[in-house]
Amino acid sequence: MPVAEKLKLLEALWDSLCATSDRDIASPPWHAEVLEARLQRLAAGTEPTSSWREAKDRIRT
Q1: For residue 45, what pLDDT is reported?
Q2: What is the Cα–Cα distance from 34 to 40, expressed in whole angstroms?
Q3: How far is CA 28 from the centre of its chain?
Q4: Is 13 among the domain residues?
Q5: Going by C-beta distance under 8 Å and a sequence separation of 6 or more, which residues neighbour residue 54?
Q6: What is the pLDDT of residue 21?
Q7: Residue 30 belongs to some domain of the structure
Q8: Residue 46 phi, psi (nearest 5)
Q9: Tell me, what DSSP letter sits at residue 23?
């Protein structure tokens, strides 16, 4: 299955989950830890970043 088709299916699944899932499902604690570490690196200028175009190009290849 081509990547573009997989992404379309993933988006449809995500939309369905957002519309029907229980909003009380919490992220595991390690998610907050990873996000905090990335925010700190971003603020320090040491976290690599990409433009949206670059990110899409990487996904599609």
Answers
A1: 95
A2: 10
A3: 15
A4: no
A5: none
A6: 62
A7: yes
A8: -105, -5
A9: T
Q: Decide if 7 contacts 59 (C-beta within 8 A).
A: yes
User: Is 41 among the domain residues?
Assistant: yes
CB-CB contact of 49 with 42 (8 Å):
yes
The C-alpha atoms of residue 57 and residue 51 are separated, in whole angstroms, by: 10
How many domains does one find in the chain?
1
CB atoms within 10 A of CB 4: 10
Residues with Cβ < 8 Å from 30, sequence gap 6 or more?
Answer: none
Q: Tell me the residue range of the domain where 57 lies.
A: 24-61
**Structural domain includes residue 61:** yes
Residues 23, 29: Cα–Cα separation, whole Å: 17
pTM as predicted: 0.51
Residue 3: which residues within 8 A CB-CB, separation 6 or more? 59, 60
